[in-house]
Amino acid sequence: MTNIEFYLTPKGDVMLHTSNGVKKLEPSNREFVRWMMDRIEELYPEALKAMSAHYSKLMAFPAQHEFMMVRRFIKCNWGKYDSVMDIDHFSNFNFEEVDCPMRGECPLEDIVCKPKFNSNLSYRELEVMHLYYLGHVTEAIAEKLFISVKTARTHKKNAFQKVGVHSIQEFFSYAKQNNLFEN
């Protein structure tokens, strides 16, 4: 699933604009809903857990349960029709800041909207990369974390491999795109 732009109608319907045209997200769109569920489970497990609990009364109806979670995830993270594909040609999610009337009240705020990305980085790799993200140099990171410069560089190299980037700038773009260090 690539090159998808989501937008919301004034009535709150979720629309999918693809190269095949525009269609309304419906419970019958099982292939798309399943694909989204798999992506959310893999990349945003905390958001999935929160939505599953939120819609727990629908668990007896798996297709409806999954549809409601995918619909909520889309509404919380996309909605404006713009020139940036919400799901790009690499199947990456490009989140938007969504105007939400429940901001400040919603129990799923910063869990489902702007979800925390599951990078599969170790705690130490995340810690090292966060310090790079904040502008620290390798020597300062090593000193701050009481590790050798070589160990700091190894954590950086491993983080690059795990997320599929080749430079610190690519990693920063990746971190920003995936809300890796938000909250």
Structural features, described:
The protein is 46% helix and 7% strand. The protein has a three-stranded antiparallel sheet with strand order 1-2-3. Helix 1 packs across helix 2, helix 4 packs across helix 6 and helix 5 crosses helix 6. It is elongated and about 55 Å long. The two termini are 29 Å apart. The model has no long low-confidence stretch (mean pLDDT 89).
Give the helix/strand layout.
Layout: E1 5-8, E2 14-18, E3 21-24, H1 30-43, H2 45-54, H3 62-77, H4 123-133, H5 138-145, H6 149-163, H7 168-177
Helix pairs in contact: 1-2, 1-3, 2-3, 4-6, 5-6
Roughly how many Å is the radius of gyration?
18 Å
H/E element order: EEEHHHHHHH
Percent strand: 5-15%
User: What is the terminal separation in angstroms?
Assistant: 29 Å
Based on DSSP secondary structure assignment, what is the total number of beta strands? 3
- Give the number of helices: 7
The spatial strand order of the largest sheet comes to: 1-2-3
Ranges with pLDDT <50 over ≥5 residues? none
Q: What does the overall shape look like? A: elongated
| Class derived from helix and strand content | mainly alpha
Q: Mean pLDDT across all residues, rounded?
A: 89
Major sheet characteristics: 3 strands, antiparallel
In helices, the fraction of residues equals: 40-55%
Summarize the structure.
The protein is built from seven helices and three strands; from the N terminus they run E-E-E-H-H-H-H-H-H-H.
